[in-house]
Amino acid sequence: MEKIICALWHNDGEDRASFNARLLADLPQALRQAGASNVRINIRDDAVAPAQGLVQRWQAPQQDAVVQFWLPSANARFRGPADAAIAAHCARFAAWLVCESTIIANAQHVPQPGERTWGWSQASFISFRPDMHREAAIAHWHSHHTRVAIETQSNFEYVQNLVVMPLTADAPAYDAFVEECFPAEAMSDPAAFFDAVGDAAKLAANVDTMTESCVAFIDFARIDIIPSSQHDFTWMDQG
């Protein structure tokens, strides 16, 4: 099995609410019919409007949604039906083959069938610093930054996806995709985000530690951070 992540852009003239509704209503089943499993859709909607200040942008226009799923093979010969299902639901999309590492599984707020996952999801497309060898960037990410992200934040889900290769010709040159879920308060309250409510000294220390670790391996000129509502459809695999 191989995991695929897709960034989607909505059609010109279609408002985001209509785009989101179509994705959630139709795409999971279309992907299932194409052989996909473990489908997850992250959308940008009114529920995450308070997190607008956390957006970081490289792409213009920036992607409107993220779709994650698994196929028996990501080989283009066998991926065609899934590509067609996604293409039918958006103006354009970009796709990457990734290697997933679940650092923190969501055991606190398990997604429920047909419902938006509790809290909100920070969907981050990142690129490594151009002055670092890829191996060195991965080493810092895995051996140092992972611990920092766990210890300095209020994330209750944390999934790292290392990009293995792009699957579409126009896919932006990201090196990784990271999804982290937080309580709703973390959209607008830095203390809630950095697990330091009521403790100004801890907040300052956590912000400094996280910032120092991020700048050590991330290229902030080539990053897209998108607050999103997570909709998980893994329950469909049980039917």
Q: What can you tell me about this protein's structure?
A:
The mean pLDDT is 97. The chain has a single domain, classed as Alpha-Beta Plaits, CATH 3.30.70. It contains 5 helices and 8 strands, in the order E-H-E-E-H-E-E-H-E-E-H-H-E. The chain has 239 residues and is α+β, with helices and mostly antiparallel strands. An 8-stranded antiparallel β-barrel has the order 1-3-2-8-5-7-6-4.
Radius of gyration from the alpha-carbon trace, in angstroms: 17 Å
In total, the number of domains comes to 1
Strand arrangement in the largest pleated sheet: 1-3-2-8-5-7-6-4
Beta strand %: 25-35%
**How are helices and strands ordered from N to C?**
EHEEHEEHEEHHE
Chain oligomer state: single chain
Mean pLDDT figure:
97
Based on helices, strands and strand pairing, what is the structural class? Answer: alpha+beta
The assigned CATH architecture is 2-Layer Sandwich
* Measured distance between first and last alpha carbons: 19 Å
Quote the CATH topology.
Alpha-Beta Plaits
CATH top level class name? Alpha Beta
Number of helix segments?
Answer: 5
Short structural summary:
The chain has 239 residues and is an alpha+beta fold. 29% of the residues lie in helices and 28% in strands.
Question: What's the layout of helices and strands?
Answer:
Blueprint: E1 2-9, H1 16-33, E2 37-43, E3 65-71, H2 76-87, E4 92-104, E5 120-126, H3 134-152, E6 157-166, E7 176-182, H4 190-193, H5 200-215, E8 224-232
Antiparallel strand pairs: 1-3, 1-4, 2-3, 2-8, 4-6, 5-7, 5-8, 6-7
